[in-house]
Every structure is written in C-alpha cells, then in structure tokens.
Queue: 2 jobs
Job 1
Amino acid sequence: MPGLSFAAVQFRIAEGLKPAIAKRWTLAFAFALGNFLGNLISPFAGIYELGFMPLMNVVGGLLAYGIARAFKRNYLIAGLVYAAVISLSVSWMLHVLFNIPLEALVPLLIASEEAVMIIGAVLFYLVEKRWKWYQ
C-alpha cells in the first residue's frame, strides 16, 4: 500500500509478520533486509531509510525477542515491543528529515504500528493452532 507506507501514519502489511520474532530471533535480520528492500522505493530513500531503519529493525527485533521470551514467547508482547521501537525510530527519522514535531508523530505512528502488529499477533496465534511453523 504505497500511499500508506511512507507517511506519518504507516500501514505496511509486512509489519504484521513481525510478531513472529517471538519464536525465532534470526527473523530480526530477515525483517531488516525486507525493510531495506522495501525502502528502496521510498520517496525518502537515503541513509535513514536504507541504513538507520534496517538497523532499528535488528535492534527492535532482538529486543522484542528477548522480552517475549520472558512471557513464554508471546506474539502479542513481541509485536507491542517491536512496534514501539519502530514507531519511535520512524518518528525520530521524520522529525529529523522534515522538522515535524515529535508530539504529532509519535501518537500516530504508535497507533498505526501497534494496530498492524496486534492483527499480526492474532493471525499467528490462529496459524499456530494448526501448524507449529517455527519447528
């Protein structure tokens, strides 16, 4: 959804996959690569989109995995943590690039990221009932 993927309110369908980090820490690197490739078509492609954001995907993924482990590898916990890291990172990036106040960016980005991650977590719970995809 290109029109909703590079703005202050972001809905990237691929973000819904990120709660899977609860089961496999190595996915942090897959998500970083996917972020890099997806951002190649960004109207703002540059050091932030192609360097900083993939790095923050690794940081966010590893943090989400670590915290989710304390909660029995819970998808929802992983998604909430990952979404917080990514939404704060994107907020900071847009603030630096466009001087948009953080007070305006943070709530919008947290809401949109958390919404997509919660949906993703629910879908992973449903999939896991039939298939242990991570084994």
Job 2
Amino acid sequence: MFVRLNAEAAEMTGDGGQQEELLRELRTEVAQLRRAMETRPAIDQARGMLMATFRLTVQQSWDVLVATSQNTNIKLHRLADALVGTVHGTPLPKAVHKQLAAAVTKVKAASAPGGTRPASGPAHRTPKRHRGAAPARKGDGPATRGHGTAERRRPQW
C-alpha cells in the first residue's frame, strides 16, 4: 500500500479531492501499523508458548492461534493476551481451552506423514532386524545413550 500511495502522490496535480483521499488512506495505514506494533509482542509471546509447549513450528503456532481466534470469536491479540496471562496464573476459559486443544490436535495431525497420525505422540515402528544381526537389547536405539533409559530430545533453538 505504501508504494502505491507514493506513486499516487507523485502523480497529483493539485486536485484537493485526491489529496484529501490520499491523506485519509495514509492516516488509516498509520493507525493500522501502530495497532499492529502494539499487539505484535503478545502475539509473538503466545506463539512462542505454543511452540515450546506443543513442539509446533512457527507456521503451526500461527495456524493454532488463528483457528482458535476464529472458533471462539475472540480477536487474535486478545487471545494472545489471555494465553500470556496463563503464565501469571490466570486460567483460560474452558471453551477457549477446548478450542485451543482441538486446534493443536488438528494442526499436528495435518503435519503428520499422510496427515493421519494422531497428535498424541510420534508413530512408533519396530526396527527391522537384518539377517544375522544380534537381537535388540534394552537400551539400544537412537533415544538412549547406552544406559537403558530413554532421554527426551531437547528442542533445537
């Protein structure tokens, strides 16, 4: 919009009506940008909370916020404020919590291979043994360090 408005301003020949319209559009754009700058920090914090809590990607966290906002009829920035407020002990309303959980489940299921894996956890497969290989022992596998106990993988920041 900014580039278009600059181009229009350059073409103006002194028509007062066009200048007034351009001025109204610029004021509207400035107000929208100020509002976005005010609400952005809470939205980004809420996205970070969703990413850390549910191991979502940046896009998935955005999709969860948008879906929950639409399904609860709550403005996205107000939903973000409510999520950030949970850190300070303010619980989410049950209906919002339910919609948020449903959105997380849907987003995670959609990102699974084939789009069908449930969001409750990774799909587990038994590794195939090669002919002549020794039987698997407790503690063998990529999630262990040889001590027989699985360690939770840390997120890569």
